[in-house]
Hints:
21 strands
Amino acid sequence: MANQRTFQAQALVLNGVAAGGLASMSFEARFTPLESTPDGAIGTEDVDRHSLDVNVNIQCTDVAKVNAILDAAVGNTTFSGKESGATTWHNYTVAGIVITGCSLDLRKGADATLGLTGKVRFATPAADLDEVILLTGAVGTPPTLTYPARLYRPNTASFDPDGAPAAIAPIHVESVALALAANVISDSNDADVGMTAVDIAGWRSLQTTLVYRDAKAVSPSHITAQLLAAVRGNLTVSLLGRGGAANKVLTVNNCLWTGANQREGAEYAEFTLRGNSGWKNAATVYTLNGTPKLFDIA
């Protein structure tokens, strides 16, 4: 039997945004199962299905494009994979991916990574999986690659509370993580095969996690207690570029610290702060990719 394997997914263009450093792209297609209620029978008698739901997960290292990806209009998504034992390619086109959330993982010992979740919006009632994930095989022209400006190693951090208080700057930053999820509504009905209605009904608060090893004493306690007691404000963290790429700064606006953890032991003490950012602060309303953004890497 001939070898039909593919590998090295690459050249992702997600709803028109070219995103480099593709690590993985996964699709989970699942019908909602329907099972009858037994009425004295030996077991479930009837099994049927309806509403094909296709969920998408993406991992890449082009973290600075997160705002553009979240704000992009829903369209076609393309990527490619190498065909094993050949010099040809699989080219994929996926229609109607609605991006429903993201996660950013920025740590000192690895590439910064961007995770994305999405759900496919079926274009027509009769569309099945073979009309959503389209494939052209044995393509002789290599795909056009996008090279990300990779980042790593969160360096200096500073939290600037609203108003007069001075900025608080914990050092020895281990990692910063962001998570953002949408309120997603979806539906199918009539003769729909899949979810023909998928919409974002608003975004939840942005969650930020900051981990550091700064045990600085700030009378009468320590710097973590000072941060947790602060009013809402703006967090900035510098990120170092890799391979000659320029350094960048992560900015998280309107952050209110809501929890802290302190871990002591034989290794260096480690402190974790958790915060949430709402989309409005007084007269300021934040955006995904306009002015001002709720968060940004620039």
